[in-house]
Structures are given as structure tokens and as C-alpha cells.
Recover the amino acids of this structure.
């Protein structure tokens, strides 16, 4: 289908973009990579009067690595993350994520900000943001504000963005050297959205016990989840089979996935437990390899 009639503008600054959004009074959409928005426009799932292209807005395509963590500009593409060798040590879970994101053509155009704003509960980037306690920098008519990822996603394709707001960047905390991580997901075809997925990490203390575990789930609820009950099972324990088995059991008991045309609730619940087990085994192998 053809796109709906609309006005196209290409501002040259964040301030100009926000002003255009405010003038449109909720009848504008921002486009960068366009990998989610263009199909929505074609199928009339979105019909804005104004399309605001970020191509001329500077500095939003930067990846900054520092002692306090990693900052990704809203226009950073998946291929930029894939090719930035610094991230393999600065944030390896982020680097691992790219292996699961869509296909080459999508990774060559899709952006971090677009994925976060689209807020698909089965997408990897929102799940990584929630799991890693990321913070989003949002620009709006009243200035800039910071929103924790945990409170940013409020429903399927629904984020805490006002009609005049735009994502500027996402900040992920620093990654300690002794941190271990895992990421596992299952999709019907490689590159499809996950039917269930898990991202996790934990630090190891001097006795080899798991410290400050973070466990995130995606594809099984209206938003990405932190599995707090699973984290409680892992905290203070050594990464051993009996602990993992208890974590899987807790995981399956703590979620209530929806049924849809791809899988029913029970299948997704069982699948999530399997993904958790795979992710934990990935992390445990890192511990053994470094021993």
C-alpha cells in the first residue's frame, strides 16, 4: 500500500524537532531508520499529518564509552553497535544482543531510539534496557529529563513519551570485569521477534557466589519484565545445577504469558524456563573458562 498523505520536514536540531512536535499537537511522527514506522504507515496503522526526519539532527548517532558506562544516541543503528569493537568489553551483553536482532537489512537501518520508542514487548533493546537499569534521556517542551527504563515501557507499543517528546539517548551503567552474562531467545525463524527470551547478568564475589543478579524476560508479557523472584533465588548462591533448576521452576511460576496465534500461554511459560536455563549456562561457562 502507498503511504498516507503527509507533510515531510527535516529539522537540524533537537530543539527544532521538539518545537515541530509541539506545533503538530500529537499529529506528527519521528522517523530515523523507519523499520517499524514505514510498515505502520503503509498499512494505515499510523496516519500522521507530519513526518519529522532526524537525518540532519547532529550528534544523535554517537556511541560514547566511559568509566560510567555506555551511552547510545537515538540514531545509533544496530550495525553501529555490531561494528564497535569497544562494546565487546564495555558492554558485552549489548554486543551479544545484536546477533538476535532481525536481519542484515534491518540492522543496517534500524535505530536504538526507534526500537525503544516503538516499545515492542518482544524486542531485544527494550529488554536489555530494563534488565540493565538503563536510563533514557528525553527531550520535550519543558527541557530534558531522565526516565528509568523500568518505568518507560507501559504497554504493548506504548511508552512514556508525550506527543512533543523525543528520545535523545539511552545510558547503560558500567560493566564490571567479573560480570557474567547470558542471552537466549527462541523465534520461529531467525530474525523474527522472540516468542520468549531471557537476558541476565550477575557479578561474582570472592567466593564465586552470584552477586546482584539481574534477570529480564521479553516476549511473554505486555512489556519487558524483571524477574525479581528469580533474582532472589540466584542471589548469594553459587552457579550450580540445583540452583539453576530452582530458578527455572520459579521463573515458570512467576509469569503468565498471553496466548496468541504463535503459541499458547503454557507453551510460552515452559519456553521461557528453557531460555532462562540456556542463559544461565552461558554465564556459568564464562565463570569456568575464567577459573
Amino acid at each position: 500500500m502507498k503511504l498516507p498523505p503527509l507533510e515531510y520536514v527535516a529539522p537540524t536540531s533537537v530543539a527544532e524537532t521538539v518545537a515541530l512536535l509541539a506545533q503538530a499537537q500529537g499529529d506528527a511522527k519521528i522517523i530515523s531508520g523507519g523499520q517499524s514506522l514505514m510498515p505502520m504507515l503503509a498499512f494505515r496503522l499510523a496516519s500522521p499529518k507530519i513526518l519529522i526526519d532526524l537525518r540532519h539532527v547532529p550528534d544523535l548517532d554517537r556511541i560514547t564509552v566511559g568509566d560510567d558506562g555506555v551511552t547510545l544516541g537515538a540514531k545509533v543503528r544496530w550495525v553501529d553497535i555490531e561494528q564497535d569493537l569497544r562494546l565487546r568489553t564495555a558492554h558485552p551483553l549489548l554486543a551479544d544482543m545484536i546477533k538476535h536482532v532481525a536481519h542484515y537489512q534491518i540492522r543496517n537501518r534500524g535505530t536504538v531510539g526507534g526500537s525503544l520508542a516503538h516499545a515492542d514487548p518482544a524486542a531485544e533493546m527494550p529488554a536489555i534496557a530494563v534488565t540493565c537499569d538503563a536510563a533514557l534521556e528525553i527531550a520535550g517542551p519543558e527541557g530534558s529529563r531522565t526516565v528509568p527504563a523500568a518505568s518507560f515501557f507501559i504497554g504493548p507499543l506504548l511508552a512514556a513519551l508525550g506527543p512533543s517528546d523525543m528520545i535523545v539517548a539511552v545510558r547503560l551503567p558500567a560493566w564490571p570485569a567479573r560480570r557474567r552474562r547470558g542471552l537466549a531467545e527462541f523465534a520461529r525463524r531467525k530474525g523474527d521477534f522472540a516468542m520468549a527470551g531471557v537476558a541476565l547478568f550477575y557479578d561474582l564475589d570472592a567466593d564465586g557466589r552470584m552477586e546482584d543478579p539481574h534477570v529480564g524476560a521479553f516476549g511473554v508479557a505486555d512489556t519487558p519484565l524483571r524477574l525479581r523472584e528469580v533474582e532472589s533465588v540466584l542471589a548469594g548462591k553459587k552457579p550450580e545445577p540445583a540452583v539453576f533448576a530452582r530458578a527455572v521452576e520459579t521463573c515458570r511460576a512467576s509469569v503468565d504469558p498471553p496466548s496468541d496465534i504463535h503459541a499458547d500461554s503454557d507453551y510460552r511459560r515452559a519456553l521461557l524456563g528453557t531460555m532462562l536455563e540456556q542463559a544461565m549456562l552461558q554465564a556459568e561457562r564464562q565463570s569456568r573458562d575464567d577459573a
Q: What stands out?
A: The first strand starts at residue 7 and ends at 9. The two ends are 57 Å apart (CA to CA). Residues 27 and 48 are 5 Å apart (CA to CA).
